[in-house]
Amino acid sequence: MSNLERQTAVERTGDGTYRGEIVEDWRMWVPVGGYLTSIALRAAQAHASSTTTQPVSVSCHYLNEARVGPADLEVTTLRSTDRASSFLVRMTQDGRDILAALVAAAPAVDVGPKLNWQEAPAAPAPEDSEATILDDDVLALMGEEPFWKNLEFRMIKGLMGSHNYPGIDHLTQEELKFTPRRDAHIRGWQRMACGEGQKDPWVDACRSIIITAAMQFATVADPFTPPLQFIAPTMSLTVDFHTFHPEAQWLLADAVGSYAGDGILGAETRLWTRDGDFIATANSKMTYHDFAEPKTSERLGKSWFQLTEE
Questions:
Q1: 185: which strand partners?
Q2: Which one, of 188, 258, 250, lies nearest residue 216 by Cα?
Q3: Cβ distance 217 to 138 under 8 Å?
């Protein structure tokens, strides 16, 4: 059993109820949303009536911050047929809602067309790309968090190099806060050694969730750094699974910002194998909180989700 399989596993505690253990390894200030969603996905797997079912999509709303330790999950079957199933998963800790997720699943059947309409972008091989070192301000803020030990990055676009857009030299520091200095676009290879080699598509889907979820905030923050001016807790995340390749080590992720406005930021990430097979698509919405706001600086050390309460 791989670390990822073990760290997302759940045990049945009753009729439609399960318990998982949120571990320290996936903390970035607090346990990250992609990891929590993965535990919810595994609860849906445990609840599915067929062992041949595989995940199709998961859509998750994050309600409160989680803590390291046990979490309770309640799974309701909304619909189940020979060709499709839908589950509602609710995660709580000590009676407090952590997240709610809708999971779609279907059996793996060899019928219909098989086409890859989304071609992978051009990219050098991972062994020909240098390991990425985060900007100093990002490292100072997040570099010691245990989450980063699970992933290896080899970025091709974004997270490094010049931030200089033409025609911004005359802008004040306040104006630069909201002026992008490069595109909201990150592309590169990612590897999660603890999630490789699993034949179970549900575990492989967890790897896709965590990798794509981790790209979302980085994509919308990158145009405005250094230094990092804001934080953006994730409100919702949707991941669609196209196919599964647990044998693949390096996965090519391409993430773009979609829109920013009215205090909300959006991003989309797509994931391919090095052979160009399309793995997953993720979309998320995040809320903007400026470090200059007293509420943001005061609450960062207390609760990530308190930022969304006022």
A1: 256
A2: 258
A3: no
Q: What share of the chain is helix, strand, coil (3-state, %, to 5)?
A: 25, 35, 35
Cβ atoms of 186 and 222 closer than 8 Å = yes
Q: What is the dihedral of CA 227, 232, 237, 243, to 10 degrees?
A: 10
* Domains of the chain and CATH, by start: 3-110+124-308 (2.40.160.210)
pLDDT in tens, 259-291: 999 999 999 999 999 999 999 999 999 999 887
Cα–Cα distance measured from residue 177 to residue 229, given in angstroms and rounded to the nearest whole number = 7
> CA nearest 71: which of 53, 51, 86, 92?
92
Burial 288-297 (b: 16+ CB within 10 A, else e): bbeeeeeebe
Q: Are 186 and 157 in contact (CB under 8 A)?
A: yes
Give pTM, 2 decimals.
0.89
